[in-house]
Amino acid sequence: MADSLIRIINLWILFPIGLFFRLVLIFSILLIIRRLYVYGKKRSKVAVVVLGDVGRSPRMSYHSVSLASHGFDVTLVGYAGSVPHPLVLESKNIRLQFVKEAHVTRGMPRIFAYFYKVVTQSVYLLWTMVVQVSATEYILVQNPPCIPSLAICCFLSVWNGSKLIIDWHNYGYSILALSLGENHPMVKIAKWYEEIFGQLSSGNLCVTKAMQEHLFNKWNISADVMHDRAASIFRKLDNEERHKLFLRLGQDYPEFVASGKGESRFTHIGELGVSMKNDRPAILISSTSWTEDEDFSVLLEALQYYEENTSFDLPNILCVITGKGPQKSYYQKQIAAKNWKRVKIITPWLEASDYPKLLGSADLGVSLHTSSSGLDLPMKVVDMFGSSLPVAAVNFNCLSELVQHDVNGFVFENSAELSKQLVNVFSDFPQDTTTLNRLSEEVEKFRNIPWNEAWDKNVLPLFKR
Ligand SMILES: *[C@@H]1O[C@H](CO)[C@@H](O)[C@H](O)[C@H]1NC(C)=O
Ligand SMILES: *[C@@H]1O[C@H](CO)[C@@H](O)[C@H](O)[C@H]1NC(C)=O
Ligand SMILES: *[C@@H]1O[C@H](CO)[C@@H](O)[C@H](O)[C@H]1NC(C)=O
C-alpha cells in the first residue's frame, strides 16, 4: 500500500518536477552557448518589424531610414504589397524582408479562423525571423497589430539576446473592442497580453504624450514620445501646379472645370501666368474610412446648414471626400439625393500621387477621426499639416497635441459648430482669407520641425548602449 503510494508520488509528482528543472537547465545552457555564438555578429544591426504592408507603414519606414543614416544595418520586415518608400529603396543599409501573410479560408467558424490565423502567422513570422534575418542587436516592433508579433519578437529577443523596443501607435485591444465590445473575454485576453509583453520590452516609443502617460500610469511602462510627421511629398502647390491638377481631374470630375470653356473653375491664365480666380469655390477636403467610428453624417449635416444659411452671401464649396470603406455607398446615395446649389460633394477615386497634390491645393481640411483608445492622433491631419493646410477636426481626448482651436485650425464638437466655423471662415472668401492665412502660417511652424531632429533627440538614445 505504502509502496504503491510512493511509486505514484514518484511517478506523477517528483519525476515531472525533476524533468521540468532538467529542461530549464538544458535550455539555459543552450541559451548561453547561443548568446556567446551570436555575440559580436549582431552589433549595430536592427530588425524593424511590422505585421502590415511595408509600403503603407510610413512611420516604420522613417525609423528604418533614420537608423540607417546613423550607421545601423537595418532589416525591414513586413508584408509585401504597395511600393515601399523611395528612401527605403534607395538606402544601402536597409534590406527588405517580406513575411508571408496568413489567410483564412472562407466559411471557417469565426473563433477557429482567428486561432488558425494566429498560429499560421506565428509560424510564418518565426520562420522569417530565424531563417531569413540574421541575428540583430535590436528588434523594433510596431504595435498594433500585437498578435502575434509582440510575443514572437519577445521570444526572439530572449533567445538571441536582442533588445526589444516597442513603438506604440495605439492599443491592439482597443481596436478589437470596437467590434467586440469592451467586456468581451477576447478583449480582456488581448489587453493582458499587451500589458505582459509591453513590460518585458527594454525600450518603448509612442505617438502622443497622452499615450505616454497612459502607458506609465496603467502598466508602469516608460516610453519616449515621437510625434508623427508628414512625408516630404506633402506640400503646398503653386498656382501653376494647381491649374494642371484641376484640368487633369476635370477629365473625370467636371466639378473642377468651368463649363464649356475647357478651363479650370479655380484658376485662369493671364499675362502674368496662372492666378486664382476671384469667384472660385472654396475647396474643402476630407478623407474618411467610412466606418462607424468616423461619423460622416456630422459633415453632411454641417454642409446642409451651410447650404441653407440665408444670412450671408456665402461662396460655393466643393467638398472632396476620398477614401474607401463599408459605409461609402450608403452615404453616396444620400449625397446624390441632395439638390444643393452652394455645396457640391464628390467622392473621387484618386491615384496615390494625386491625394497629396489635392491636399496642397485645398483651402480647409476636415477630420472626423475619433481614436479607438483616445490616445493616438489622426495621420490624415498630420498629412494636411504637411501640406500647410489648416484643419477643422472633431474633438477627442488628445487632439490638442496636434490641433489648437483658432491657432492652427478649428476644433468642433458637433455639426452646428462645424457649420458656424465654415460660415465664418468662408464668409468673404476668396477676397478675404486673413483667418485662413493666419492659421496656415501657424501650421507652417509645425511643418518646419524636421523629423530627423526630433528623432535624434527622442529615439536615438534608445539605440545607444
Ligand atoms: C535569432 O536567432 C536565430 C537562430 O536561433 C537566428 O537564425 C536569427 O537570425 C536571429 N534573429 C534575430 C532577429 O535576431
Ligand atoms: C515600475 O518599473 C520600475 C522599473 O522599470 C520598477 O523598478 C518598479 O518597481 C515598477 N513599479 C511597479 C509598481 O511595478
Ligand atoms: C448663418 O450662420 C451664422 C453663423 O453661424 C448664424 O449666426 C446664422 O444664424 C445662420 N443663419 C441661418 C439662417 O441659418
Helix-strand category:
alpha/beta
Let me know the number of strands.
Answer: 15
Biggest sheet, open or closed, and with what strands and sense?
A: 7 strands, parallel
CA-atom Rg in angstroms: 27 Å
Report the portion of residues in β strands: 15-25%
What is the total domain count? 2
The CATH class assignment of the largest domain is: Alpha Beta
Look up the CATH topology of the largest domain: Rossmann fold
* Strand line-up across the major sheet: 3-2-1-4-5-6-7
| Second rung of CATH, namely the architecture of the largest domain | 3-Layer(aba) Sandwich
User: What overall form do the CA principal axes indicate?
Assistant: elongated
End-to-end Cα distance: 62 Å
Quick overview:
This protein is an alpha/beta fold and 465 residues long. The protein has 2 domains: 37-229 and 453-463, Rossmann fold (3-Layer(aba) Sandwich); 239-448, 3-Layer(aba) Sandwich (Rossmann fold), CATH 3.40.50. 45% of the residues lie in helices and 16% in strands.
Q: Overview of this structure, please?
A:
This protein is α/β, with parallel strands linked by helices and 465 residues long. It has 2 domains: 37-229 and 453-463, Rossmann fold (3-Layer(aba) Sandwich), CATH 3.40.50; 239-448, 3-Layer(aba) Sandwich (Rossmann fold), CATH 3.40.50.2000. Helix content is 45%, strand content 16%. The protein has helices at residues 2-38, 58-69, 86-90, 110-132, 149-160, 172-180, 185-200, 209-219, 239-250, 297-308, 328-337, 354-359, 379-386, 415-426, 434-447, 451-458; strands spanning 45-53, 73-79, 94-98, 138-143, 163-168, 203-206, 224-225, 267-270, 273-276, 282-287, 317-322, 343-346, 364-367, 391-394, 409-412. The strands form 3 sheets. A 7-stranded parallel β-sheet has the order 3-2-1-4-5-6-7, with helices on both faces. Strand 2, helix 3 (86-90) and strand 3 form a beta-alpha-beta unit. Helix 4 runs parallel beside helix 5 (149-160). One 2-acetamido-2-deoxy-beta-D-glucopyranose binds next to helix 4 and helix 5.
